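Appendix B.2, paired examples.
Example (i):
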Amino acid sequence: MELYLKWLDKYEKQEGENTPIGLILCAESSREQIELLEMHKDGIMVAEYWTDLPPKRQFEEKIHLLVAEAKERIERKKLM
């Protein structure tokens, strides 16, 4: 993915365009592994997807957890 993004940036990016990003979709993802690989530094994002929606209660819990994690990351960045 890194090689592909660097190639796009060097040979395909048009004037005025932003640097390309890559998106990896996973049925499951390990936030710790993703953070350790530091792929975001190279413009590579990882997202978890669902093929079926979970029960409403489980879905709500997941959304609340993701919002809390996002808020924590924002606060950590503010401290840097």
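Example (ii):
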Amino acid sequence: MKTININKVRQDFLNLTAKVNDRQLIYLDNAATTLKPKCVVDRVAHYYLYENANIHRGVHSLSEQGTIAYENTRETIRSFIKAKHSHEVIFTKGTTDSINLVASSLGRQILKAGDEILLSTMEHHSNIVPWQIIAGQTGAKIVEVPINDAGEICMDTYQSLLGPKTKIVSIVHISNTLGTINPIKEMIQKAHEHGALFHVDAAQSVAHMPVDVQELDCDFLSFSGHKILGPTGTGILYGKEDLLNSMPPYQGGGDMIDVVTLKQTTYNSLPHKFEAGTPNIAGFIALKDAIDYIIELGFESISNQEHELLEYATAKLGSIEGLTIIGNAANKSSVISFVMDGVHPHDIGTLLDKMGIAVRTGHHCTQPLMEHFKITGTVRASFSFYNTKEEIDELTNAINKVKEFI
């Protein structure tokens, strides 16, 4: 079984040497954003110190070098998600930006009054609000796909909701709050049987498991660079070539133009049609280093490490009296959300911070999910491959101290 040299890997993440409230930092908020390896930070700094130039527009050496490095990232991501063409990879600001692009551009093209958009109860707000906006503009209707008390999508109900009015289905691959891994391939197949298009919110999945867009046969897929060791302000939208070609631009200006006159503008070809304005050049150049880092470690070793952490943490936290884990799907990623009897999640998070432990508290941008479980929020501990069982022991001890204190 392939394993990670945890001591060597942790040396790449200098944040892990930080002190918080005079305690050694224990970072368990990876679902919000991952830490960045030194190679990624160094690449951003190197660009600004030695290579700074705008891309796609200049004939001088720095501009041409930057363009090559920037487009190399696109090819790396194409290979990483197994897309057929590099021009099917659109650079955005993040998952939220990607979903807004699809909802606006595709939605205003294909939706009309009475059409239906299927979303699940566990969706992140970023995969709800853009669809609500376009539904309001077109007269389409949002249809909720329910979940069970384990935090799993009710597949029988999902299939029954699909029909001739279903035009778009947009479902999260892995829940940021529950860690549930949805049967996304099966869901895509069922949607296609009814002629619906399928968008995958892969913000939480690409850092934990291999994603093959051709095998999934998804129509669109979105994720963020900052959740996969990369810089903030970087995101990816994958779309099938024919669909992207048929969609109108989302924003105007910059690289998305072909010819501009005051009377009429023609648009650039893919992928540039959807990439208006000067992008986060340094961020996307460094995103390649983040993806390369993941590839070098390998998903087998990442999965093994994170699965061990999940099982260990589930057992340790589950043994604490008065603590209830929210979300117990049979197929789950390395996220544990929990509540404690008589203690508000924010109070737990604040006290854990005093002990140097970073967790997330609140509704995690999944308020419909909180409503389903009849709670206002949870404490969420989310693990990455650079976390250790010793850190989980510290978390367990700290929670017991919180209980004693309160």
